[in-house]
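User: Small ask, check this?
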Amino acid sequence: MEWKTSDGLTDYEAAVSFMEARVAAIASGKADECIWLLEHPALYTAGTSARIEDLTDPDRFPVHSTKRGGQYTYHGPGQRVVYVMLDVSKRGHDVRQFVKQLENWVIAALAEFNVKGEIRDGRVGVWVQRNDKPLSPSGHQAEDKVAAIGIRLRKWVSFHGISINVEPDLSHFSGIVPCGIQDHGVTSLVDLGLPVTMADLDVALKKTFEEVFGDPTCHSTPPETD
């Protein structure tokens, strides 16, 4: 499997084109699986379940329609995007189990920084409790989303993937209702008070991938300048 890391900001449509080609090559046995770590310029993406009323500021950033699952998400500088081009047919032919593994991967990576990530029924993404915030009007502990997950499969090969907030401008999320959820906020590792860098997160992701998905034979490519 190849780990691909890109420096700078990667154009969204160029990234989709790469994924489309790589997924086809993986499905035909002509290329290795690939995990691509990158950042995008500020933009919104609309998944297959996106509702137009959740795009509250359509002129703020470019909006890209995408065929991944989910609703509206934000991508931008300071957010680690993890595109997963993996052969799910070799991983049990179980889409729900695969998504659970992605969730567990994020949770394991966050645990490297002593952050307890959690999953909530009916809410997409990985969440953290905010004990530093007041209780909600209903008396529940405040929770913020720190990572989003949305994938697509073609011939049992996955693409799109995960976004984890390291140090993005959190005000940029205000142009959408993230993942259609209005009652909870968005946070980042730095917002939680952790001086985590993108490189720190990458190390944690690579370490915990093997813990969650097994021990594949991997090789890495050097960072690219886009």
Observations:
- The CA atoms of residues 89 and 156 lie 6 Å apart.
- Residues 95-111 form the longest helix (17 residues).
- The first strand starts at residue 2 and ends at 7.
